[in-house]
Records
---
Amino acid sequence: MKYQNNILYLSGNLLKGSIPGLLKQVSHFTLRDLHTIDLQDVADIDSAGVAFLDEIIARTGREQVQIINKSPQVAQSIETFSSLGLKKPAVPARQSFFYQAGQFLYDWWDSLVWGTYLTADILYWSVVCLFRRKGLRKGAVINQGILIGVDALGIISLLSLILGLILALQSAAQLRQFGANIFIADLIAISMVREMGPMMTAIIVAGRSGSAIASEIATMKVTEEIDALRMMALDPVRYVIVPKFHAITICMPLLVTMSTLIGIFGGLIIAVTYLDLTPIAYLNQALNILTLKDVLVGLLKSLFFAWVIVIISSYYGLRVKGGAEGVGKVTTLSVVASIFWVIVLDAINSLIFYF
Amino acid sequence: MDIPLIEIRNLTARYGDETILDNISVDIMPNRITVILGASGCGKTTLIKNIFRLYQPSSGSVKIFGREVTDMDELEYEEILKRIGMLFQNGALINSLNIFDNIAIPLEQHTRLPLEIRDRIIRVKLKQVNLAHTELLTPAELSGGMKKRAALARALVLDPEILVCDEPSAGLDPLTSASLDNLILNLKELLNMTIIIVTHELASIHRIADHLIFLDQGRVIFTGTLAEAKKSTLPAVESFFQVGTF
């Protein structure tokens, strides 16, 4: 490369590999007065080479820079790949703070209204479809029941057992110091029935089934399956969401009951092996301390949790935007939101029933 | 003179500040194949989705079978949809169901036909689209062309009065595309169907179009027959038929 009398002489091949070095070399020259580029010794040029020439021309700030002595092949490449005259896309102007705040509020309000409509729609059709099966697919509730309930049995049982063992183990050491071994049964029974059973199950169902519901609906949305259902005169809420709602309404209390029993059983293992209680004494104490209210509140909570999980997952599934990335995003959001609302609902429940 | 089956008046669709469809007014006449064509991104699919309320138009009115549907009650509108079949761009088969169950959805939901009659109808529809013996396969096990044909069978299963096909030949080889076109022509003759096709495949347009609606940047710039379109001096229409496809 040579720069003489405002003419830039280039040589060799102007290909992708050589351009970074050439660009460094050219930055040593003051190109303001450049009027000609001589390509006599340039044998080959690719799109990066043409972009390099365009960059040089752009740096001169001139409208016209002559390119001379180019071979026909090089000339053709320049004609094909030249970026001169192509405008950069205009960068959208940054919106003012007030605009962004207004947009945020509008989106929030829109989501709230839409979510309220969807919740009302789901609740309405869930009741109506109990008496009128039109718009529901045969066997869908059973299928969903298997997916949400039966398939979750293993993981919920295992985690509930571990939870019962941990709770019992943590408290056993303390209780033993005061000779209050028998109260391990009270502690485990009350905490499993009132709190840990419903909450643990809800968190697992939110992570497992909630994510599955959100991603299924979101995928159906992006692949136009939801539109196809609409065009077949079918309401996606009735056809897709209501069976899940019915299934989770049946499965959740059963899962919670099982989780609670297994958690209490986990406590029993520690009570027998570590605190030298007999199984009968442990179970008698557990049954004596529990009231009907505890059991009913636990089950009622599980129903609220179940509905919240289905509604939130469906909401996010139907609000998906974009393709695969959008599906992943709404799935994550649905799980986070479901777990958040499960915990908030649990707190509200505790305030209402035990404060 | 025939009464239009679908009347679209001043239909406008906006996303944010962008106008996708600009004041569209066209009629879809019965018993003929109307092709909506134009360059990619000109608003063809958006027009279809706005007509059939899959998207909510910003303004304008749509009458289907002589009834205003823009603000129609959902349950009432479902009765109209039962008379319409739609083939989506990617088929939009329900992935969790096999082909038989996919095609059975409209029959299950909107008829009281006994199972054995439903079975026969589904088998016939699958044969019509050359997909016999694929009943038990899932959509994932079918090729792109087969998926489209299965979706067409589903769209046809209630013998609709209006069939809407969104890019039926896109991504198909010429032979499959031609056989799909022949099937659409047969259906029109046989069932007196009104067919709306969104496409930019010139070969397909030549084979099947009775009437053309040409869109450019969200506006209708031409309506007429294929012969009239070929004589058009509008630059977009002229270049379309000169170059072939966009």
Note: The radius of gyration of chain A is 34 Å.
---
Amino acid sequence: MNAFEPALDGEYVRRWLAAATAAIERESDHLTELDSPIGDADHGANMRRGFTAASAAVGKEPPQTPGATLALVGRQLIGSVGGASGPLYGTLLRRAGKALGDGPTVTPGELCTALRAGVDGVAQLGRSERGDKTMLDALYPAVEALGSALDSGAGLVAALAAARTAAEEGAVATVPMQARKGRASYLGERSIGHQDPGATSAALLIAALGEAAGEGAA
Amino acid sequence: MSVSEPVGLVLVSHSASVAQSVAEMAAGLAAGGATAPVAFAGGDGEGGLGTSSELILAAARSVDRGAGIAVIADLGSAVLTVRTLLEDDELPHGTRLLDAPFVEGAVAAVVTASAGADLDGVAAAAEEAYTYRKL
């Protein structure tokens, strides 16, 4: 166990939001590029608009608890993204935030359970499952890796690193898949050979969970 | 539920001009006399293609006469945003997303709502539009 593991509090979620917003900003052009052959070439700009709005809202009036902070970010994404990723990521974060409850801090196990509830919410909203070439193909492996790392006694930082690796591998694994949801599904077999932009942005958001924990440990 | 108040209809499209045109067409094809209130929410609210939850909420409030609101959405984020707003209870009481084709469903919904059908009747007519074959 790492003695310097950070507390999972409202401050942690704000560090996650800052890291996620910076990553979206940095990768915005890449996300749009991935969205050009199989989508409508707006994923980078949409995500950027959403996370910029969420950062502004949280910065203006930071909620006290990690749960309320995640829920506020989710609400902002639903209201500002403009594409399907808005309601999908919004549902992910609102469900996760709700599952975290009202406590000022949560345990790594509670964070993992909450993320799983959020990912299940995405699947339900999108009537989608793993293998459809969507963000779920990064999110499910990530929460599973996080859960098994914690179960086997890993500390938070190591478990989040495992989640990041699983999410990134999950995103790459969408390349040979044929899309079954969203605009890309209209392309049928022509969607094969492209990495899914939603799975790619999902991996960025998971990676930011680890960055936020690392910064707290420093 | 008041029998004298009509069901409201909200059309949600990625495109503002599609949403507006279909609303006008549906109202125009409804038989003369008082028509049910129809509102549209089109585009991302900033002149681009997409979906705005603010526009959807405003449209729904504008057609709420207390008899229920039927929402027809085109695809993708339009459908997902309406579903999310419904799950979060942010739309007026009695709002329902219909599983109906956009243009044909809108015409069927406005015609039946204007004839005084309740929300179940409007929903049934709009959803039945899927069974109308063209060949």
Note: The first helix of chain A runs from residue 10 to 38.
